[in-house]
Amino acid sequence: MKLDVAMFEGHHVNRAAADRRCATLTTRRSVKKEYQAAWLVNAVRCVDLTTLAGDDTAGRVKRLCAKARQPIAPHIEAGLGLKPGALTVGAVCVYPTMVPHAVKALEGSNIPVASVATGFPAGLMPLHLRLEEIRWAVAQGAAEIDIVINRELALTGNWQGLHDEITAMRAACGDAHMKAILATGELETLNTVYAASMVAMQAGADFIKTSTGKESVNATLPVSLVMIRALRDYGALTGHPIGFKPAGGMKQAKEALAWQILMKEELGRDWLNPDLFRFGASSMLGDIERQLEHHVTGRYAASSRHALA
Ligand SMILES: O=C[C@H](O)COP(=O)(O)O
Questions:
Q1: Structural domain for 280, as ranges
Q2: Complex ipTM above 0.85?
Q3: How many domains does the chain have?
Q4: Catalytic: 209?
């Protein structure tokens, strides 16, 4: 849709209220112990298993894809009563030149390959090159493209400029899903985060995503709350559900629970599926797997299996 500044101009985010709303999410026991395994299994389904490192190699991507196909060890899978091989992650997320390796390694599975593009992580290259990078990654087989927004356009309130760029990126994606990374740690205020979320959605983003993982501050719960409320407001005004992807710095299973609780409380259970919710994380799966192993061997094993049935 066209830029509609009325959807966000004058919107004021109360930072203290956002902080208060999120303060207890990681500490309070909102998920009963016997249901935690089911929530953690759902988190696995929603992970964009990521490697975005300067020393990535075909071999590392191949190993990551093997993990994407079998994210938790077979004995844990069996202990939870899951069908062998049925649980996979939401996607594998890599740099563009790694896309062909990931596509090959994931052949025959339903796991999509996501590629970052548009001069990730800073996005500071000419627009025609950023668009060409998207087209190249799509041609290599990426089904999802994680673009980065031009922070300067957001920081200076050039919403038309930002809308134009993201609209061009959307067109370059073709049939691929587009996730718009706002790099919220560099947007200075929550009001700017709300406005940039709205502009990205108006310009056709299928998902809005917090961070690249390379900013000094990446996914936080208060910023996520602001983005989630923006997509809730956008959905109420347009009828279009948009997905959300917190990304960067998440390493623990308890964070996977906190973000899912936030999604459920703000948007409802429908959002707790990979079509509308992803975690961007390179190293959270290990802790989730460890916690699931405890569930299989611990005193909640029987009730965890029951919750998953
Ligand atoms: O999009 C995903 C992020 O880049 C992953 O960040 P991370 O390595 O801090 O988990």
A1: 5-308
A2: yes
A3: 1
A4: yes
